[in-house]
Specification:
The protein has 7 helices and 10 strands. It has a single domain, classed as Rossmann fold. With 210 residues, the protein is α/β, with parallel strands linked by helices.
């Protein structure tokens, strides 16, 4: 039976949630050139894949964090996924904005979050980890007890792994860059000669292609 990592990677490729283009790289908002583009919001348009992905995240949380009280999604990409996971678990849901809104109550966390609540954070994508950990910090500042974070996909950057270790946040992902490259090669999405280029990008994403 195929692993969850490779099943998710194949699903992301099938629905074009992940695009690989080593020869014509994408430009990220940060200005980085990248041979990969990932948009996990596309999962929401495919009911069976959506059910599988959210079901696997709920299963991880159920098994690893049985005492969880609240599921928190990170805006905007993980709001829908986080809500669906919370629904499967029968838990309250809230989400975290990148920054407090500049009107109304000025809230950064939308929904009810009691002080001391045991929270698992749901993310759609982990790149450098900075926005995910900023959301975690906002939850902690609001009094949450962060048990861990579960995400659909991670680029597995060395700096993101170190950032999560330094922040003492346990991160679990359904799939990752290594599984994606392996799967993409197996299904003929990329050529043998592309593999080294794709692997090299991950270790120096800010300077790759310059």
């Amino acid at each position: 039976m195929e692993s969850v990592e490779k099943t998710v990677a194949k699903s992301l490729l099938d629905i074009k949630a992940v695009l690989l283009s080593p020869e014509k790289p994408f430009t990220w908002a940060s200005g980085w050139l990248s041979p990969i583009y990932c948009d996990n919001r596309r999962i929401l348009s495919y009911p069976q894949i959506r059910e599988n992905v959210c079901g696997w995240m709920a299963e991880i949380i159920r098994n690893r964090y049985p005492d969880v009280e609240v599921i928190a999604g990170v805006a905007t990409g993980a709001i829908a996924h986080g809500y669906l996971v919370a629904h499967l678990l029968g838990k309250p849901f809230c989400y975290v904005r990148p920054k407090p809104k500049d009107h109304g109550t000025g809230s950064q966390i939308e929904g009810i979050l009691e002080k001391g609540a045991k929270v698992v954070v749901v993310e759609d994508l982990i790149s450098t980890g900075m926005s995910s950990l900023a959301a975690k910090n906002a939850l902690v500042n609001a009094g949450a007890d962060i048990m861990g974070m579960v995400a659909i996909f991670s680029y597995n950057f060395p700096q993101s792994r170190k950032a999560f270790e330094d922040a003492n946040v346990e991160l679990t992902t359904l799939s990752n860059y290594d599984a994606l490259i392996e799967t993409a090669h197996e299904v003929g999405y990329i050529k043998e000669e592309d593999i080294e280029v794709l692997k090299n990008w991950r270790f120096s994403p800010s300077t790759w292609g310059r």
